[in-house]
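WARN no homologs supplied; continuing
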Amino acid sequence: MKWILWTLATLPILAQSTETPEPAAPSPGLILKLGGLADSTHGQDWRGRLTWQASDAFTLFISGDRSGLASTTEAPSPSGNNTITTSTSLGGSYVFGWFELGLQYDHSTMSDLLASRRINLLPAFELGSWRLGLECSSRTTDFDRLQFKGRTINTPSGPVAVSGYADLNVKDTGLGATLEYDGEIWRPYAAYSHYSYGAFEGTTDVTRIRNASGVVSPEVFKALSGRLVAVLERQSTSRLNSRAALLDSTTTLGLEANLKRSRWTLEGNRDVDHLTTLVSTTYTGTASWKATPRFTVELQAGATTSDTFGTNRFAGLTVIFRTRPSS
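OK structure emitted
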């Protein structure tokens, strides 16, 4: 009788000991990326990104970028220095099973030229190895005061010379999509984004620069802006930092191969400038090696070609540190 009672009392303990323990949830992890690029026209770019993986589903990040675009030959600034562009981004994403929702805020400035603010809504859908990502964005670009003297603009009554100032801004909305297939080794992907621009609006002491709708047309803006359009055109053809550029569209095709301790990527990109319709094509090759489960080294090289500026070659190095070992 005592043996039977002892057996019944120990059954729950024996059952618990035979159950498979649930895997512990991964601890939060940090990923730090630091890198730089340099191009054949003496431009330089320094960038960093800190990502916090709070869980397998929730991620937050902050990133910063500072580039010195060597545009002094095509559009020299009054000080003779390179055009400095800085960008800061904040964002995060959360995964709800097969659906992921991301949100990102970008703030960019271009020295003595402009400042912009962009909000990106980034939903994505996963079905097996396929992933479809969407981009819905809104940006406002505020230009530094344009001061002009004796600039010729076209009006309904003919060309006239105007002098004065204008504080203008322009808004654009972006729609885009990314499609990728994540195989065991190969990951092909493609992306396209198109941006639609409103009118140039703001205040000015010269009313005749406005058209019948009360806004400044792109043609008049280009005539008044001086070096600004030339710098924006040059910015759109540089892979160092095109975040502040005014683009009509951007198209990307890429192929990535994931091996045991290395990753190799070949990517092609085509950008169209909004104000000048200049087309630039970029080819980039990236190779990364996992030195340890927590440390990765990445090398990048490529070239951008456009009819106006010829070929601009670039190369860079990025190091990646992780607090949680990568798989």
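The chain has one domain: 28-322.
OK
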